[in-house]
C-alpha cells in the first residue's frame, strides 16, 4: 500500500510516492504537457504510476491563498481531482499546499542548484512536501 502525491500546475504535475509503511515521501518525476487542457497523456502516466507502485490513495495539492481563501487555480485542481477519481477509481484527498513550492525553491537554492536546473525538479520536490505533510498528519492522528 502506497500513497501518491501530486503538485498540479498549468503545464506540469510533480509526482511523489510514499514508502510502503506510509512514513516517508520520495519525489519521483515531473510530468510535462504542452497545454493546460491537454490532460490525456498526463492522466495515462499517472494511471501507469498507480499500477506500478500499487497506489491506494492520491493526495493532490490544493493551492489556497495565504489567508486560506481559494483563488482561481483551486477550481482547476478540483476538476483534475475529479478526473483522477474517475480514471483511477481511487480516493483523491485535496491537501493544503501553501508554501510547498517556496520551500522547494529554498532547498534547491541552498543546495546550489542553478536556476535553469531548478525548474526540472521543483514540482516533484513540492509534491514530496505535499505528500510528506499528509503522511505526518496521519501519524499525528494515530499517535494523538
Task: Give the number of DSSP strands.
Answer: 5
- Low-pLDDT stretches: none
Largest sheet: 5 strands, mixed
User: What CATH architecture do you see?
Assistant: 2-Layer Sandwich
Q: How much helix, percentage-wise, in residues?
A: 40-55%
- The separation of the N and C termini measures 23 Å
Give me the CATH superfamily: YqgF/RNase H-like domain
Count of DSSP H/I helices: 4
Q: How big a fraction of the residues is strand?
A: 15-25%
Layout: helices, strands, pairs:
Elements: E1 2-8, E2 12-18, E3 25-32, H1 40-53, E4 55-62, H2 73-88, E5 92-96, H3 100-110, H4 115-143
Parallel strand pairs: 1-4, 4-5
Antiparallel strand pairs: 1-2, 2-3
Helix pairs in contact: 3-4
What report would you give on this structure?
- With 144 residues, the protein is α/β, with parallel strands linked by helices.
- It has a single domain, classed as 2-Layer Sandwich (Nucleotidyltransferase, domain 5).
- Helix 3 crosses helix 4.
Can you describe this structure in just a few lines?
The chain has four helices and five strands. With about 140 residues, the chain is an alpha/beta fold. The protein has one domain (about 1-144): YqgF/RNase H-like domain (Nucleotidyltransferase, domain 5, 2-Layer Sandwich), CATH 3.30.420.
